Amino acid sequence: MSESARQTVGIVGLGYVGLPLAGAFEAAGHRVVGFDIDSAKPQKLARADSYLPHLGQSLFDRLASSDRFRATCEEADLAECDAILVCVPTPVDVDRQPNLNFVRTTFEMIRRVHAPGCLVVLESTTWPGTTREVCLPILCRGGRTLGEDFFLAFAPEREDPGREEPMRSVPRLVGGLDEASQGRAVALYEQVCDAVVSVSSAEVAEAAKLLENTYRAVNIALVNEYKMILEQMGIDIHEVVDAAATKPFGFSRFDPGPGLGGHCIPVDPWYFAWAANRAGHPSRFVELAGEINAQMPKHAVNAVVSILAEDRVDIQGASVLILGVAYKKNVGDVRETPAAPIVEDLRGQGATVMYHDPLVPEFPKMRRFDVGLSSVPLTETLLRQVDAVLIVADHDLIDFDLVAEHASRVVDTRCALSPGDVKGTYRRA
Ligand SMILES: NC(=O)c1ccc[n+]([C@@H]2O[C@H](COP(=O)([O-])OP(=O)(O)OC[C@H]3O[C@@H](n4cnc5c(N)ncnc54)[C@H](O)[C@@H]3O)[C@@H](O)[C@H]2O)c1
């Protein structure tokens, strides 16, 4: 890449979304300044010390040795950037209200430091109108003007941790606040994405991102409800989904599970619900899906209680081994994981709980839960000792053959095992 084509791209927030993005711009030949308020991240990046294993060690090695990438906690370092992309958290509060504190703080900082003419793009998932109503007024403070002093767009991230698909092949939506911002943002993302989809406004891009994730939450709730109903009829939901998925049109596959997890699917629909209420038209789908999905951890616990009861083993005093505490297969992310309420519930009923998860050596303290457990090694002796095994995440690294051979009772929420393979009692839930 010629020096004139090379840009300096700032990435604010070096987490699940920001770090792969930084890697993509670096790989495309641009200079990248990665900024995070968590000082541990720049330090780890400088040492190639991986903190997101699913991204692969090679990304950390490449960034640590690159002369085009620099990670920093100094906001002044963003002053040299031609564009700044914002990838900070957008959580909900306990009452499910959107919390934009991270976004506001970040835009205050960008206003202090950005270079004249800088393109600023919000990537964090949020309600339609945020970029215009929340971010724009902050950048305009002090008499600055959109289209002259800065440019502003929304371009939602479609990262799916654990999916092999390279970022380049995932089409990128871009909605600018004016034509000039749109043009600049599209040109920037074309550097790292094969397809950039230009939409007419930031609001369309914001709403499209929420629709994508609400669609997942609602459809997962649908199969979860089907699961609970079909169980009453003695029909295996997994076989039913397999069968329905053979239809080549009109059916998209969703699989039931122990409950939602991760930063996006349990959270984003509440951003839509909040915006829907504000618009005076509450979303019934979001409320209902939230209610059904929230029942699933309890459903898994009930299955453990019942498999034990069949052998007259009381949950009070029983030992339960959870396999996989991450919210989904092959990632080490426990944010919003259903494993946390499951542990709490089992303990509340007097069970002793252990877990094995090669991707989560320590169960970190969470906002609502402090499980205080570490992963135990998965051995034949342990499997023989425990009263029940509950599969919550079916990582490839877990030795399910060992489980099938030695566990006396298995409750499987992920279809990780086949009934015929398990020597002990086996139940899907
Ligand atoms: N994780 C996903 O799969 C995913 C997918 C699509 C979209 N998103 C959205 O992307 C956004 C970021 O999510 P994530 O999963 O990357 O979060 P994350 O928690 O993994 O990373 C966010 C990073 O931002 C940093 N940060 C917080 N406040 C900051 C500030 N003021 N200045 C600089 N850095 C700050 C944190 O220290 C953290 O490193 C969210 O809006 C999320 O909904 C996430």
Task: Describe what you observe in this structure.
- The protein has 429 residues and is of the alpha/beta class.
- It has helices at 18-27, 40-46, 57-65, 101-113, 130-140, 179-189, 202-233, 237-244, 268-278, 284-310, 339-348, 380-385, 400-406, and strands spanning 8-12, 31-35, 69-72, 83-86, 118-122, 150-154, 172-176, 196-198, 319-323, 352-356, 388-391, 409-412, 425-428.
- Helix 4 runs parallel beside helix 5 (130-140), helix 7 (202-233) packs across helix 9 and helix 10 (284-310) crosses helix 11.
- The protein folds into 2 domains: 8-200, Rossmann fold; 221-428, Rossmann fold (3-Layer(aba) Sandwich).
- It binds nicotinamide-adenine-dinucleotide (NAD).
